[in-house]
Amino acid sequence: MLPSPDKLISLHKKYAPNVAVFNLVYTHCQIVAEIALWCAGNVEQEVDRELLKTAALLHDIGAYVFFSEDGKNLNQRMYPLHAVLSARIIADEGIDERVSELVSTHVLLGLTKQEIIDRPWILPERDYEPTTTEGRLLCYADRFHSKHPTFNSFESFINRLNAELPLQAAKFEAWSKEFGIPNVEELAKKYQQPIR
Hints:
This protein is an all-alpha fold. Helices cover 57% and strands 2% of the residues. It has a single domain (5-145), classed as Orthogonal Bundle (Hypothetical protein af1432), CATH 1.10.3210. It has a two-stranded antiparallel sheet with strand order 1-2.
């Protein structure tokens, strides 16, 4: 069973160090959910929208340990582990295992074991690639917003990927054709946050 909206908020508050960091992370999760659901409307196949929304709202619940009291990221190199930690928290809280499966693969657009070895990423060496449409939608939507808090335009994000991670850039471009490109200008106005 998927948790209620109130339960989702209470789970975030349980792991957040304070209200400011809760607001930072939970608002990011809300934005990612909004983008993911918009993108879901552009695909032909069936999408479990409630599962997708729940995963988006919980995908960064493991990120709280990487933030100081004032909302600064404490350890950028270790940060990719937040996906694994988020999935573990979700499982430990007894939430539908499909949610933890989606959340565990949301670093970038999913990473292969070889990408982890080549970089190297601070992640256990195994494949973290989404195997469902919901998982791919979560990864894709998450790329349009960061907890700085800032929106990423499609152009700025793909340019960064092309410079550093060309395989991820190719995947991002392919998924943009499948899922569409969200209107980050509209979202930036709604949430009063900048775009890079």
